[in-house]
Design goal:
The protein is α+β, with helices and mostly antiparallel strands. The chain is 22% helix and 42% strand. The chain has one domain.
Length: 118
């Protein structure tokens, strides 16, 4: 039986597949490329919505995470959003749909929620 400890110290059993709100620091610890480093983020003028990070947990192991990024459209007139999935076992970043496909964070989060079936 796999368990986790809540913020209040209670030990709970994890179901076979489970989704948790994740953190950017936790996501960064799994990624071994340049996607999250400061220079890459600055070059693309990219931001990560921490409120969108949703970890995919199977049998108590984090196997991936959905999240949304925003980037400006290179002339700095507006920001557009991209839904993404990071497959931890493959160390592979997946763009869900098209790059900058969403005009709002709400739209990108909606796609993430539907894929994560939250």
């Amino acid at each position: 039986m796999k368990t986790y400890t809540t913020k209040s110290g209670l030990v709970r059993e994890l179901p076979k597949q489970h989704y948790l709100t994740g953190s950017l620091d936790r996501l960064k610890q799994y990624y071994q490329g340049h996607f999250f480093d400061k220079d890459s983020m600055r070059f693309w003028n990219s931001r990560i919505s921490e409120s969108s990070i949703t970890e995919n947990i199977v049998d108590g192991q984090v196997v991936g995470a959905w999240f949304a990024t925003s980037e400006d459209n290179f002339d700095r007139s507006k920001r557009l959003y991209t839904a993404r999935y990071f497959d931890i076992s493959e160390h592979y970043m997946i763009t869900i749909g098209e790059f900058q496909a969403y005009s709002s964070l709400r739209q990108a989060k909606s796609v993430i929620k539907s894929l994560a079936k939250i």
